[in-house]
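Homework-ish question, so no full write-ups if that breaks the rules, but can someone show me the predicted structure for this set?
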Amino acid sequence: MTMTDSPPAANTALAAASPRVVGLFDALTTTDHKRIGRLWIRSGLLGLLAATLVGVVLTIENSNSSPDDVFGGINNYFQYFSLYRFGLVLLVVAPLFVGLATVVVPMQVGATNIAFPRAAHGAVWLFMIGAGTTVVSVVSGGGWGALDGVTGAEQDAIALTLAGTGLVIVSLLAASVCVATTVVSLRTSGMNLMRVPLFAWSMLVAAGVWLLTLPVALSNLVLVYFDLRGGPRTPESFGIAEGSNAIYSQIGWLVEQPQIYAFAIPVLGVLGTIAPVVAKRRHAQHVIAVALIGLFGLLSVGGWSQPWFQGDNYDEKFVFIVFGLFAAIPVLGSIGAAADTIVGRGSDGDPDPGADVGGERGLAGLLSVYGLGAIGAALLLLAGTVAGLARVIQPWDLGDRTTVTSVMNLVLFSAAAAAIAGIWFWAPKIGGRELPVSTGRLAMLDVVAGAVLLGGADFVNGFLETPAFGYQVAGSSAPLVAEPSNQGFVEAMNVVGAIGAVLIALGALAVFAAMAKAMRSSGAVDDNPYGGQTLEWTTSSPPPPGNFSEPPGRVVSEAPLLDTVNENGEEA
Amino acid sequence: MVTTTGLPAPETTRPRSLLVGTMFSCAAAFMFFCGVIGVYILKRAEARDEGAEWFPEGVVELGPSGFIFWTLVLSVFTVQWAVQAINADDRINAYVALALTGLFGAAIFNQMWFIINDTGFASAADNAQFLFFIVNGTFIVFLIAAVVFVALTTVRALAGQFGPRRAEAVSSAAVAWNTVVFMWAVVYYLIYITK
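A: Not a homework solution, just the prediction itself:
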């Protein structure tokens, strides 16, 4: 008879026996999901800083209506305009959420590592290569098309941009497979899908939607790439020969509703995870929140809404309008469920009001960086989906107006704010230290207020008949701002938008400042400093290799730590 | 009684990560394929609406593509034979079935090469010929991926890594293989039968 004394997840002794290697070699060879996640998060934050700086220049340019001032021509403006949009989605928001999920989701479901850790590690490096290729090729004159026709060396640079974007999408797909598989197959005992923490659930939904839609974008890129590299290149083929923004217009569905909502699905997960922590009780409507996140995912599937499938006027089609009309409902419902959790009466399973569940109570919890961020991000997302709703109301005729830009900015900066809130919330698990509160509040207020100004200015300008840039560049001589009904007011709103962009950039800088400050700090961090209710808070900060020194016990609810508090209370 | 200390205990449950991951990957691959085939259908419809000829008469023949289809139908049986055999711990049958599946894959690759050469198409000629290359090229890429998956599974099976309690990798290879077969069924109907 053979007996084995050590439990499956008790990996600390084994890990301690092997030497810990740090530095570049470790970054190149690690299979620890926390280190892989940190690589994603750093890449995303670097992208955030770069994208917000490009955004500042673009909005300053917008406020004086001549494309020659900063960019030296409308074609260069177009390159950075499209880099900003695709960059925000593919190089900022998606990697930030993938990074958070790579670190947090395995711990939330009680797993010792992410599924396919080598694939997850390969994905992050593929992402860096793809992102680097994309940015360098755009700076070298590439981009997603050229307004004055694709010629000579420009053709090579554009092909490189398409290849780089393709690599980024492949890497995000690989990472999505790892995250989704972790949630589906590596959950601990007793954790059915209804007991999965809302952030992990939202990442499962997001990864599912990405896996169904990003390959369609990849197929678009492949067709355009091979058309450029030996295809017919006729005006009827895939856009290259038209000498316009046809490539951008074709794959622009990635940065427009409904697809843009797919990158903000985790916002609802962050809100649903943080609201109960702030309230110090269970989520009042957990099952409803699960359903609403799923519904939002369903309404954000956007691979079908592209010119090749729907024609140029796809935003006037019935299904597009239906998606636009209903997308705000799950967001509003999720905010309502969070509000019920924070200010409602609570439920039978809640801990005793006097029980020590850790963290700050009441207003202090709400004013924490993560509390502010989660709520601010959710409200921004609501604003974005409402702007999207306004866009599809046909009598208002906002389909080709700056309302489109407003939706994009509100939704993507809501996602960025939620990701930053998540980084602050899970910092003890990500890096083993807490991030500074005051700088964090400043960063969060900057990003949220900046997004309101940026998105709000474009929303107002949409009603003043200001055409969106992406819809007016078919001719190379088109002005940046056409002649709207009230030019003076539009320019004033553009200045407001520029102020918003500056605020967001300051927020991104504040995030970096906080990170630098935290890197210099030392000292022990509590295992559960905020009163978290899910399994990641049962392990130490930072977590050991293998995540848990003891395997998590059988989970009987969506808030296992509150079950522990209640059991202890009864025993007492 | 023998007591071993420090060794990890066997897993209490067997998470089917590889199977789940393969399913997610196949879903993504199929959506890529749908993106390509959707554009093919639309461009062909546009050409027909304008009264233009899509493929020149008699160039895209049904025979060789039919051979591929029926070979793939056979391979569905062989790959499921492998799954069945490994579940029954019948290693010899599993080896034979996996090897046959891989062999069918190589034969299909050969036949695809023949078809592409036989048509004499040039990718730069027009949309029809360009998309012919893209759709068939997409299929070839996924076919190669599936053959590699089956080959790796065969090697691991030969190394004795699978058995009735560890048949997940063979099942995963079968899922990937069947996805590729389904892709060809779509291609065969849309490109070769309805032209």
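Now go work out the reasoning yourself. Hint: Chain B has five helices and one strand.
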